[in-house]
Design goal:
Strand content: 15-25%
Distance between the termini: 57 Å
Protein name: Aldehyde dehydrogenase family protein
Pfam family, one: Aldedh
GO molecular function: succinate-semialdehyde dehydrogenase (NAD+) activity
Keywords: Oxidation, Oxidoreductase
Number of strands: 18
Family: Belongs to the aldehyde dehydrogenase family.
CATH topology of the largest domain: Aldehyde Dehydrogenase, Chain A, domain 1
CATH superfamily of the largest domain: Aldehyde Dehydrogenase, Chain A, domain 1
Shape: globular
Bound molecules: nicotinamide-adenine-dinucleotide, ligand LB4VBGO6
Strand order of the largest sheet: 12-13-14-11-10-15-16
Length: 471
């Protein structure tokens, strides 16, 4: 199975793809017009009718082969992820394993789309429910996890009995095309799962929202685009899953294990150079441990190795593009102008155009833009607080509600803070919460619906109430 970039690309393709570390073009991808995709959706819908008639066990057997092939081709997939997203190879290998875990998980979950029988309300009648595939799905995915954000949607869709057409991010089409190739090799019918790169995401997004055969849209990306799609899906009342932006608080209380909190902050903040939706976006530290925590964090941050993702040993890669880097620089400069202090970093890097040094700022206040905007970069803004109630108030003072983290050892505090934080996902004494077995998703303007876990399958199923009378 050839998954080399050249075999996935098209020298005449309209979509140019670039290496974030150097800015150089690494390949070109074939793109699909609105008419092309409309026809692809119609073919997918027909393939979906047949796929839905197969047993969950038959679908599971094919998904299991896709899982095995994805694991077998980890190195090639990781090279593609690093080439087009820039993340360090070690993280890319981890992403492939994480992405594959959704295929493995939903191969099994698809067999558990259980209905129910309900004690009847009247003689001669029987009440039951069944779960059926929602129909043909569309998905739109971001660049920061070009493997995992695809499988986190495609695996449950296929397991539930649905066809799915995916538009990957313009920056990262090759990882998606490789996954498509592996799925077809595993036995997923060619028309059932298609990846359709484009240079006009808005045009394809509108088609996905308005095509008569599309019954469901699953979107992962920014809150701004999510709101656009929410409006566009209203005419056809599509089923909608939205995995949007975040502004994660990372709270360190006086009773925290400081060394554990530093490790958790490193894992949460600097993974993928801070370009994940669940990265710590604000670090709140209680007065009693503020200086000790900052000093310990500084030591670990300054040990990060900045460089191209393809260089073994790199632990901090480039940002996705110059716009991403400029946004980070703008937020840091604004914070410094407003009184924040640089502990380390706070500058672009001589490692190359797309790089920004790992940064810690202290003296940050909630009114600064860096505390309310999603940074999407390797910058830790530290906000000092005095009381537990103040920490929860600051943490909740955002339109976002995706992930939140805190470190404390008092059991009463753990329960009070866990219950008081207004987020879809809360981790106590850990900096990484993402796993296929748990429901991933946000509240407020971080989205709706859940991915992974047993809940993730329901996003691609309809619950039907069946009444049988005349008994
Ligand atoms: N909640 C999650 O699970 C999750 C996961 C990853 C990324 N994100 C969020 O995604 C953002 C970063 O990713 P990004 O820069 O790719 O986001 P983005 O919203 O700019 O793009 C996401 C996808 O939407 C497409 N798109 C852009 N404009 C569109 C339009 N008008 N209509 C239809 N599609 C359109 C893009 O081509 C891309 O495929 C961050 O906000 C991050 O928090 C969230
Ligand atoms: O960026 C968003 C991803 O969902 C992050 S994670 O890999 O799922 O934690």
């Amino acid at each position: 199975m050839n998954l080399e970039l050249e075999s996935l690309g098209d020298a005449e393709g309209a979509l140019a793809v670039f290496d974030p570390a150097t800015g150089s073009e690494i390949g070109r991808a074939t793109t699909y017009s609105e008419d092309d995709v409309s026809s692809i959706i119609t073919l997918a819908d027909a393939a979906g009718q047949e796929w839905a008639q197969r047993t969950a066990k038959d679908r599971a057997a094919i998904l299991s082969k896709w899982f095995a092939l994805t694991k077998q081709h980890t190195e090639e997939l990781a090279r593609l992820v690093t080439a087009e997203s820039g993340k360090p190879m070690a993280e890319s290998r981890g992403e492939v394993a994480y992405g594959a875990s959704f295929i493995e998980w939903f191969a099994e979950e698809g067999k558990r789309a259980y209905g129910e029988t309900v004690p009847t309300f009247a003689a001669g009648k029987r009440v039951m429910t069944i779960k059926q595939p929602v129909g043909t799905c569309a998905a739109i995915t971001p660049w920061n996890f070009p493997v995992a954000m695809i499988t986190r949607k495609v695996a449950p869709a296929l397991a539930a009995g649905c066809a799915i057409v995916v538009k990957p991010a313009e920056a990262t089409p090759f990882s998606a095309l490789a996954l498509e190739r592996l799925a077809h090799e595993a036995g997923v019918p060619r028309e059932l799962f298609r990846v359709v790169p484009t240079t006009d995401p808005a045009e394809l997004g509108t088609l996905f929202c308005t095509h008569p055969r599309i019954r469901k849209l699953s979107f992962t990306g920014s809150t701004a685009v999510g709101k656009t799609l929410m409006r566009q899906t209203s005419d056809n009342v599509l089923r909608l899953s939205l995995e949007l932006g975040g502004n994660a608080p990372f709270i360190v209380f006086d009773d925290a294990d400081l060394d554990a909190a530093v490790e958790g902050a490193m894992a949460s903040k600097y993974r993928n150079a801070g370009q994940t939706c669940v990265c710590a976006n604000r670090i709140l530290v209680q007065d009693g441990v503020h200086d000790a925590f900052v000093e310990k964090l500084k030591t670990r941050v300054e040990a990060l190795k900045i460089g191209a993702g393809c260089e073994e040993g790199t632990t901090l890669g480039p940002l996705i593009n110059s716009a991403g880097r400029d946004k980070v620089a703008r937020l840091v400069d604004q914070a410094l102008s407003a009184g924040a202090k640089p502990v380390t970093g706070a500058t672009t890097s001589d490692a190359g155009e797309g790089f920004y040094e790992a940064t810690i700022l202290t003296g940050v206040t909630s009114d600064m833009a860096i505390a309310s905007e999603e940074i999407f970069g390797p910058v830790a803004p530290v906000i000092r607080f005095s009381t537990e109630d103040e920490a929860i108030r600051i943490a909740n003072d955002t339109p976002y509600g995706l992930a939140a983290y805190f470190y404390a050892r008092d059991v009463g505090r753990v329960f009070r803070v866990m219950e008081g934080l207004e987020y879809g996902m809360v981790a106590a004494n850990d900096g990484i919460l993402s796993t296929e077995v748990a429901p991933f998703g946000g509240i407020k303007q971080s989205g709706m619906g859940r991915e992974g876990s047993s809940h993730g399958l329901d996003e691609y199923l309809e619950l039907k109430y069946c009444l049988v009378g005349g008994i």
